[in-house]
Every structure is written in C-alpha cells, then in structure tokens.
Amino acid sequence: MVGGPGTGKTSLLVGAAAARIAAGLAPESVLLLTGSARLNATARALVTGALLANGPAAVREPMVRTVHSYAFAVLRLAAQRNGDPPPRLVTSAEQDGIIRELLAGDVEDGANASVTWPRHLLPALGTVGFANELRDLLARCTERGVEPPALQRIGRRAGRPEWVAAGQFAQVYEQVMLLRSAVGMAAPQATVPALGAAELVGAALDAFAADPALLAAERSRIRLLLVDDAQNLDPQAALLVRLLAAGAQLAVVAGDPNESVFGYRGADPALLGAAGDHPTIVLGESHRCAAAVARAVTGIASRLPGVGDARHLTSADGRVGSVAVRIAASERAEAAVIADALRRAHLVDGVPWSQMAVVVRSMPRSGTGLARALTVAGVPVAQQASAGPLAEMPAVAALLTVLDVVCDGLDGERALALLTGPIGRVDPVSLRQLRRTLRRVASDDTPREFADLLVDALDPRRPVAGDVPDQLARALKLVRKVLAAASRSQADGLDPRFTLWQAWHQTGLQRRWLAAAERAGTAGNQAGRDLDGVTALFDVAEQYVTHTTGASLTGFVDHVRSMVLPVGGGEPAGGGDAVAVLSAHAALGREWEFVVIAGLQEGLWPNVVPRGGVLGTQQLVDVLDGIVDGTSTRAPLLAEERRLLVAALGRARSRVLVTAVDGDEGDDAMMPSPFCDELAALATEPSDADVEPVRAPRVLAPAAVVGRLRAVVCAPDGVVADDVRATAARQLARLAEAGVPGADPAHWYASKTPSTDLPLWDGDEHVVTLSPSTLQTLSDCPLRWLLERHGGDDARDVRSALGTLVHALVSDGEKTEGQMLAKLESVWEELPFDAAWFAANELDRHRTMLSAFLQWRAQTRHELTEVGTEVEVEGVVVPPGVDQPGVRVRGRVDRLERDAEGRLVVVDVKTGKSPVTKDDAQQHAQLAMYQLAIAEGVLPQGDQAGGGRLVYLGKIGVAGAAERDQNPMTADGREEWRARVQQAAEATKGPQFVARVNDGCAHCPVRATCPAQAALGGRP
Ligand code: SF4
Predict the structure, then answer these.
(1) Is 11 left (phi over 0), alpha (psi -120 to 50) or beta?
(2) What is the atom index within ligand 1 of the atom nearest the CA of 1011?
C-alpha cells in the first residue's frame, strides 16, 4: 500500500487490525512493525488502544514494534529455547566508547597497530567525528551482511585503503565484542552475546536460519503482519519482513517511497516496489493536506527520477489552503518575514502557536540562529533539546550525583555539588553564610574543612543545627530526603529505574519545572530542557535495565557517563504553546496547521555534497548496492533531498510558506535553491521571486508597529499627507489606550515642554546649603549636580555602598584589625554584586585597604593627633550679600587631626584607585571648603586651618597608601575660596544649567541624557 502524506496509511493498517480482531483473530496474532522509532510512547498507546477497542484488555505480545525491537524479541526467544542467557544490546553510546578506545589504542601503538590506517587519516583517529563515521560505516556493512574480510577485499579491489583499514578494524572490534560477551561490562557474571543495533536484524535472521522451528513458530503465531513506514527499512529488515510475510494470512506493507529520506542510514524503499504478483493499493487522497499543499507535494514529487506510484496527491476535503514563496535580502530580513507570517497567523487568524512549525534543512547551520531571531521578534519558540552529552546536563548531573552517593557514599565534593546544584539551589552567598554557621557550631572541635562539615550536615542521623538560617535548613533537609529515599530503594534491592525515580520524586523539581515551562521565557525554556534531560535519563535507564543482564546502579551510572556523544534532539523542549523550530528529519511523523520551510538555499537544500566524509561511506554503500562507477553520485543525493522536501511539505495541513535569501550581506553571497523556483511556480499567492528581495520587512509586533506609526506622526512637514498623519495618530491613540508601551506621547523622549522657566530659588538673603563634596561637582558641571540631585544618581551603585562601608569601618578607632576584617566579611554578603568572582576579588582588595589604613594611621601618629572621626561641620561660611547668595556648609569630615602647631588638619579617606595630581590636590574643592569652614570659625575645635590630606587606600606604594596634601589656607586663599564657593552657590539657581565637559564625564551617571555628550557624538 503506497500513498503520500496524510493519505491514511497508518489509519488503514490500524483499522485492518481492529477489524480482524473484532472478527475473532487473537491479538497475539497481529504484529504491526514500523520502520522508524517515531511511533513514540503516545502514538504507540493510541494505536494499541484502537486495536484493542473491541478486543480483550491485555495481550501477551506487544502488537506495535519497531523492526529492531521485534528482532531483539526473536533473539530473546531463541536464547530461551536454547537455555542461553538473554542477549544484551550494546547501545550506540557504548559502541562509541569501545570504538574510541580501540582507535586510541591504534594511535598509541603507531606503526605496530593491528590496523593499518592510511597516513592521511591518522590525525583524525582521536576525534569524536571519526568514531561516529566509523560506527556508521560498520553499521551499513552489517545491515548489508558484509563481513570484515569481505570489506577488506572490496577495499582492495576499489583501491580504497580506508575501507581495507575499516575491515581490519571491524575484525578487531568483533573479537573485542566476543571477549566482552564473555566478561560483560556491567555484570561480570554475564556470558551473553552483546549486539549493536545494526546487528540485531542480521542476528535474528541468523537465529531463524539456525532454528527453522523458531521461524515456523513465529510464522504460525503471526497471522496478520502489518508494516508501516516501510520506506525506512534497510535491506536486511526487508528480508525479515519477507520471511514473516510468507507465513501470514495477510501481510500489508505500507509506506511512501517519495518520503524515503534515510538513505544515508541504509534505508532502501525497494520493499515497497516489490509486491510482485500481489496487489498494490495506491492511496492518492490526503486527509491532512489542503488542495494547495497537495498540489505542491505533487509538483515536487513528480520530478523525482523514474516512475513511481503515489506521486499524485489530491486533497480529500474542500479546503483550499495556501502555498507562498518569499525571498529576503538577508538572513535577518528572512527571520523578520517568518516572524511576521507567524505572528499574523496567530493574532489575525487565531492559529495556536503549537500548530505552527519552522522546518529547516540543518539546525546547526540555520535553525539555531533563526530560533533566536524569532524569539526576539516576539514568537514563542520551543527550543530543541540540548545537543550536549546527557551526563553534562545540570539536572542529569545532579541525579547521577545522588546515585553516586548511594553507590559509594558521600564526600565533600558530592555534598557541595548536591547543595549548590538544582536540588539544593544554595547560591554562593548563602553558602558562605552556611560555612560560617557550620564553623561556629563546630567551633569546639579542632578546625575542620568545610567539605567535611557539609558531609556531617547532610548526615540524616544528626539534627540540623538550630542556628542554620531557615532557607539553608530547608535545602539541607531536602538533599537529605532525596539521598535517604534513593538509599532506601537501593537497600530494598530495587533496580536502578526505581532508585532513580525515588530520587527524582523527592526532589520536587518536576512540579517546579513544569510550572516554569508553562510560563515560557528564558527560565521556561531552561526548565523545558531540564525536563527533557531527565526524561532522556529515564529512557536510558529503561533501555539499560531491559537490555542488561544483572543491571546494577554503578553500571547504570557508568553507562550514562560513557555516553560521550550528544543525546539526540528528540521532541523540542518546552512543550506548551510554542512554535517548533526543527530539522526536516526531526519533523517526520508530525503535522501542523502552518509550516514554514526556511532556508531553501543553494548548497544547503539540496545538499549534494557526498555523505560519508573521510571514509567514503556513501560510495561504499553505492558499491555494495551495485551502483557502478561512472554513475553520477549527485543524482541519488539530489533525489533524496527532493524527497526530504516532499516530506517537509507533507507536514502542513493548510498553509506553507517557503523562504530563502537572495543577497550578498556577510561573508558569502546567498542564492535561493532551484527548489524555490519550482515552488514559486506552484504557489497560490503571487510570488515575489521576480521582484527585489525584501530588505526590511514589516513585522506585526508591538514595538515595530508603534515605531512605524511614530515615524509617520513625527515626520517633517510635507513628507507625509495630512490624512495619513492623522490616521497614524488615531491608531497610536488606540494603542496607547490599550496600554501598548511607547504609544502614549506622554512617554516620548523630549516630547514635554518645560513646566516652568522660574529659577530654583530667588529673593534676597537666600542662603544655599552646600556639602563640600557637591562643591566639586558644581564646579565641574552644574548640570550633573542638578540631575544627580534629582534622581540621576544610582543609589544602588555597589561602588558607593563599598565606599560607605570602608568609611564606616575606619571611623571606629577602637577596633582592632581582626575585628575590622570580621565586620567587613559579615556585611559583604549584603552587597549587590553581579558576580561571585568579582565579589571575591573586591573582598581581597578591601581587606588590603583596611590594612593600608591602619598602617597609615600608625605612621602618622608622630605628627598628627586624632581630634575626631566623622566630625560634623555645619555653619555659614559666606553671608548673603546684595544679589549674592549666602553659603552654608554642611558635611562630615572623615578625620579631623591636630598637627604639632595645634592647627586642625582635614583628612579625607579615598577608596578609589587613581589619586589626583599634586597640583590638583592644592585646588581640591572638598578639602578647601573644610579648611574655609575652619578658618571661618564654624568648628568648635579651633579656627586655625592646618591643611588637608587625601589618603588613597586603593593605591598602595612601598611607603603605604598614597597621600596628596593641600597647604594650609592662607588669607588670600580664604578670599579666593569664599568667591568660588559663592559662585558655585549661584550656579544652583537656574533655570539654566551648564553641561561642562570634564575629566569625570566617563563616570557620570547621567551621561546618557547629557546634551554636551550628544553634541560631541558621545551617544548614538
Ligand atoms: S557627562 Fe559630563 S558634561 Fe555631561 S552632565 Fe555628566 S559631567 Fe556634565
């Protein structure tokens, strides 16, 4: 039975089985084989449910199986009949591990290696990519029944030394596998044959050949044989189907030869064309695809080489559907075109996000970047699961650590990993807190490492110390609970799956991550990936336990960690209502209302670069399949790429959008592939293939729409017509009313007129209060003073918080160095650092500053005597005059000292790292204003100004902290500073404030709104 996408092949097979069972056939007599593992658990349940709708509630044999799973069952049966232990399946990860080990041995042995690798391949032997390729080549040979000596012969005949070497390697590999079967990896007592997935079907065929009674029993059991997705079967699987079909009452083989896309993995749709005398049913009506989509599928399929059934597809219902092709000038513009189409479909036509997909030829080459661009444009995207090794995913790593503890006990490293990982979730700051608390609690003992203290804290026999803060106590209790549950399961002798489940269940992470995944966003995507990781871990556990005799927890953990190659993409993470972005291969077996086929570029889709890389696997397959030299290698690849496009088109129910780039932005020129032209001819919407590619497409997203409307409303006179401007204004008003950000002119930058032009203060006898520190700002830049004073200052700035902390610490003359440092550490965790490493660096720097201060204080005692610290200074330094404001100083001197002559010396402690120059120190406004205050008699401690000193604790030389001095204020200096202070006070009046560019601009918090910087081109 052949038929295109959505023609109901699977439904028909299921219906046939259900009808036979209803008519009295025993369910065990039905076997539905599928050529791919895509019938996942849910689909399998649906099919089984339909089969059992009228039948009994339970059957002895699963009715739906992949060919590999059936082959494994045959081998198990054969072993049972012979009284042998059951077979063991070597997972591809395990195979990779063995292959990599053997290759590493070859590299080490050099010229003495058992395999003679061609010289040009030697540098590649240690790479993951080479191991992967070699595994593929061996699998293709196994699927075609080519033994290692035969491979060597073929290599010699074809003049391909790499195939000869691969044949030698296959021989060594076989010997190793035989040895392993005698020793076993996870179960030393096991003596079971270990088989790779590619060997399963061949081994099952061998078992049937060796035991005709076994074949007869299977033939008599299976009365109804159904095969779905038969286009994905390799020749050996096809042989197995033929063997079984010969004994069945009815065998139905279904598939779509036009969707056979696993040629590179050995699939061969030949079985579908070999019905011989048996009837072939052709299904030509698609119940999924609307008319336009069916027409596009037909158009693309009709150009496949040769003749074939089921190339003509029509729609079974009256839906019209649409197919459109859009060409963009750049990848950015292409992403915008797609975002716009998806957003319109969702917002205007009401298509749920989950009913739309973006299909690409290759995720790494175009899908990942596209997914990011779509997210930015406001399209929720279901991210593909992580492509890294499973054991490295944080959630999986945490569960494996739990299992490690159950197997080998708890040590400091594991305790730390559990507490700070996804289970305990203790952040670095809280961890420091925990360290202090645990050390305090254990203070009576001899000093112990933090790691040891943590191990004790997680010991379920000890109570959690009472003074551990609540949140940390909760984390400790949770980790204890998880460890206890897993240990209990292991002690009860349950297999690794149960122990893993107990650990996972107790973490409570499932509920939290599901909730986060539903909320989407970055955290939601991460939660989705974490959940996928854990699901994959359970899948691996299931496979491991099912296929390993004597499966143990240690063996399972080793097994997962040995999976060095990335886990498969699987279903996209996140679930929820989001658009799937996935490769054409990953999209097989699924369907959506609206499918975007993106990146149909020359060189990318079709990709006719010969597969098989450095080992020439594809050429080998051609030789094995009898494709003689001289035949184009390009033609079969082109046909497979076309079939992949047919399959991608067939995923759509109603609408298809095809996009490509025609432009030369970036490093390479990009051209649409010839498939684009073919599809443009089949499109239902006017094609823009003949017009210029779109450069800046409009996206139906809030920010883009508001931006466009604002551009029209604010366009210079004469640029837009009045009625257009009025329409845009009306739409903006609607959006503003709906609360769309940026639509309300009240929020537009520079759209407000000044509320007043009155000065900030006025009148005679006005006294301006200035702090010495603002005097410097006012002198440097009055605008900065104004803006900082009115909200432009970042009060949460960690630098200013640190400065305050140091000043507070050094002001207490009673504290010893140890006390100061202890205080510093205790408040450190309250500070809003962005990163832990930065916090640690700064802590070290501040410790050094405190030591530098103590050194400076000790060194200066012979010339200075402390009068006070943090000394309040408040009083009028300049009385008001005619048209001149008076000035009152208000501030706090860090340290007030008295010199040998009894004069007061002002000391200002600085935490910055860059001292001012000696000349600038003489003009330092802050020191000068305090000196002026002393000279004017504001301080009760005296009126003789003895100079000022700036002590830079952040700049330490050989003599200690850097110091800059200001000379004692003279009578002339006093007059000069009175005038300057009055001038600064005058500058606070307004209504105009000067922006004066100065050395401090680089650190100015209001730089972004500074007109002087704008004039200098300091901002875009
Ligand atoms: S950037 Fe410079 S000129 Fe502008 S406000 Fe700040 S200090 Fe003044």
Answers:
(1) alpha
(2) 4
